[in-house]
Amino acid sequence: MDDQNEEGAFAVTSSTRAEWLIPASLITLTLIPMAGGAFRLADLAGGEVTSENARFFASPVPVVVHIVSAVLYCVLGAFQFAPRFRRRRPGRHRALGRFLVPCGLAMGLSGLWMTLFYPYPDGDGDLLAAFRLVFGSAMVLSIVLGFAAIRRRDVARHSAWMIRGYAIAQGAGTQALIAVAWMLLVGAADGLTRTLLLGAGWVVNVAVAEWIIRRRPIRAARASARPAEAPVGGPAA
Which among 14, 110, 168, 185 counts the fewest CB atoms within 10 Å? Predict the structure, then answer.
């Protein structure tokens, strides 16, 4: 009996650790953009005006809002992907969601504002601006549709749209990984190549999000088809 209890406890502990790998991985993906945002805020607080950062000094509020809201949305939003957190703390899940919706909207809308009204930095162009407008608008729309869905108590559509919005928000992290891999394999990217690599970061995240969304009905069907099992370490309720 003791062996069974130990085995059950080990299984539960292993399952718990596996579930928390998802938010931990998402937070790790945020670290590089977070470091860049911290550097930008420090530069605004005490740096010198240069041709590269003049647009931020001329209008600092949008970039500050964008950085702060992006960090909050991406870091705290990662915990919404822990199944155990959603099941055992539904009240906290909802409360955190109410906080994350305005954070995500602030991130997306400030990003759109900067794309439309800040002068292009060196190396950027109309194609990259178009990418930012398309994916930024898609992120805002996804969050709005996700919020509207949960107001109708449509959990499946709420989950799908929120996954899409979060995937787009994490684009900067994937872009950083792609840029590092490209630099190691090929060399520094610039011009059209850099633009396409940045676009690829968003495309990869959206593709992964759609794969996750489409897998969920399959997994739910398999779970419902399996016979009920007693909880590990104890009898069925």
Answer: 185
Model pLDDT for residues 126-146, shown as the tens digit of each residue? 999 999 999 999 999 999 999
For the chain, give the secondary structure using H, E and C.
CHHHHHHHHHHHHHHHHHHHHHHHHHHHHHHHHHHHHHHHHHHHHHCCCCCCCHHHHHCHHHHHHHHHHHHHHHHHHHHHHCHHHHHHCHHHHHHHHHHHHHHHHHHHHHHHHHHHHCCCCCCCCHHHHHHHHHHHHHHHHHHHHHHHHHHCCCHHHHHHHHHHHHHHHCHHHHHHHHHHHHHHHCCCCCHHHHHHHHHHHHHHHHHHHHHHHHHHHHHHHHHHHCCCCCCCCCCCC
CA 57 to centroid of chain Cα atoms: 28
- Residue predicted with more confidence, 51 or 173: 173
pTM given for the model? 0.83
